[in-house]
Amino acid sequence: MSAAVLIGVLVAGGVWLVLQRGPLPVVFGFVLLGHAVNVLLLAAGGTDRRGAPFAGRGAPATTADPLPQAFVLTAIVIAFGITVYLLGLVRAERPDEAAPDPGDPDPVDARDGERDDAHRIGGAP
C-alpha cells in the first residue's frame, strides 16, 4: 500500500513539473517519473511479501523475483545518464554572462570608458 501511495505522489509531482515552463522543471519532472517507475518495478518483484532472493537461502518459490531488481538497476543507470544529458542541454541553453552583449555596439569602450575619455581629451585619435 505504501508503494502505491509513493508511486502516486511521484507521478503527480513528475507530471506537474513536466507541465511547468522552462527546461529545468521538465528535467526534474522526468527524474520523478523515472523514480516512480523504479518503485513500481520493485513493488512488482514482491519483495514485501517474499524473502530476499539470495542464492542458497530458502526455496525459490518463497523468494522474490530478482529480475525486476535487475531492471531497476539498469533503469537507474539509464535515467542518470539521461538526466546528465538533459542538464547539459539546459546548461548549453543558458546565455553566457561573460560573453559580450550583441546589442552593445562596442563592448570594449563600455568596459574601459574612463581610459577612452582620457585618450580623447589628450587629442590623440
From TrEMBL:
Topology within the bilayer: Multi-pass membrane protein
UniProt name for this protein: Cation:proton antiporter
Residues annotated as transmembrane: 27-46, 67-87
Stretches with biased composition (Basic and acidic residues): 108-125
InterPro entries found in the cross-reference section: CPA3_antiporter_subunitC, NUOK/Mnh_C1-like
Spans annotated as Disordered: 95-125
Species of origin: Modestobacter marinus
Location of the protein in the cell: Cell membrane
Keyword Cell membrane applies: yes
GO CC terms: plasma membrane
Protein family per UniProt: Belongs to the CPA3 antiporters (TC 2.A.63) subunit C family.
Keyword terms of this UniProt record: Cell membrane, Membrane, Transmembrane, Transmembrane helix
Location, primary (coarse class): membrane
Keyword ATP-binding among UniProt keywords: no
Pfam families given in the database record: Oxidored_q2 (PF00420)
